Amino acid sequence: MKYILILLFTGIIANAQIKKEQLDLMPWPQSINLTQGTFVLNKNFKVNITGNPNSRILVGATNFLRRLDGRTGLFLQQGFVTKINEVPTAELQINCVKNGKIGLYEDESYQLEIQSNKIIINATTDLGALHALETLLQMLQNNSTSYYFPTAMITDFPRFTWRGIMIDVARHFQPIDVIKRNLDAMAAVKMNVFHWHLVDDQGWRIELKKHPKLTEMASDGNYYTQEEIKNIVKYADERGILVVPEIDVPGHGTAILMAYPEIGSKVVNLNSDSIESKTQVSGITSYSLERNAGIFSPTLDPSNPKTYQLLSEIFDEVCPLFSGSYFHIGGDENEGKDWDSNPKIQEFMKRKKLANNHELQTYFTMQLIPMLKKHHKELMGWEEIMTKNMSKDAIIHSWKGVNEGVPAGKSLVDAVKGGYKTVLSNGYYVDLVYGVEDHYTVDPMPKDVVLTEQEKARILGGEATMWSELATSTTLDSRIWPRTAAIAERLWSDEKVTDINSLRKRLKTVSFRLEDLGLTHIKNKDVLLRNISNNQKYQALEDFSNVCEPLKKYSRNKGGTEYQMYSPFTLFADACTPDASDALAFDAAVNSYLKNKSLENQVLVTDFLKKWVDMNAKLIDLSANAPLIQPLLPLSKSLSAISQQLLVGIVKKQSLNSSVMSDLLEQCNSKAHADVELAVYTSLKKLIK
Amino acid sequence: MKYILILLFTGIIANAQIKKEQLDLMPWPQSINLTQGTFVLNKNFKVNITGNPNSRILVGATNFLRRLDGRTGLFLQQGFVTKINEVPTAELQINCVKNGKIGLYEDESYQLEIQSNKIIINATTDLGALHALETLLQMLQNNSTSYYFPTAMITDFPRFTWRGIMIDVARHFQPIDVIKRNLDAMAAVKMNVFHWHLVDDQGWRIELKKHPKLTEMASDGNYYTQEEIKNIVKYADERGILVVPEIDVPGHGTAILMAYPEIGSKVVNLNSDSIESKTQVSGITSYSLERNAGIFSPTLDPSNPKTYQLLSEIFDEVCPLFSGSYFHIGGDENEGKDWDSNPKIQEFMKRKKLANNHELQTYFTMQLIPMLKKHHKELMGWEEIMTKNMSKDAIIHSWKGVNEGVPAGKSLVDAVKGGYKTVLSNGYYVDLVYGVEDHYTVDPMPKDVVLTEQEKARILGGEATMWSELATSTTLDSRIWPRTAAIAERLWSDEKVTDINSLRKRLKTVSFRLEDLGLTHIKNKDVLLRNISNNQKYQALEDFSNVCEPLKKYSRNKGGTEYQMYSPFTLFADACTPDASDALAFDAAVNSYLKNKSLENQVLVTDFLKKWVDMNAKLIDLSANAPLIQPLLPLSKSLSAISQQLLVGIVKKQSLNSSVMSDLLEQCNSKAHADVELAVYTSLKKLIK
Question: Residues B504, B365: one domain?
Answer without folding.
Answer: yes
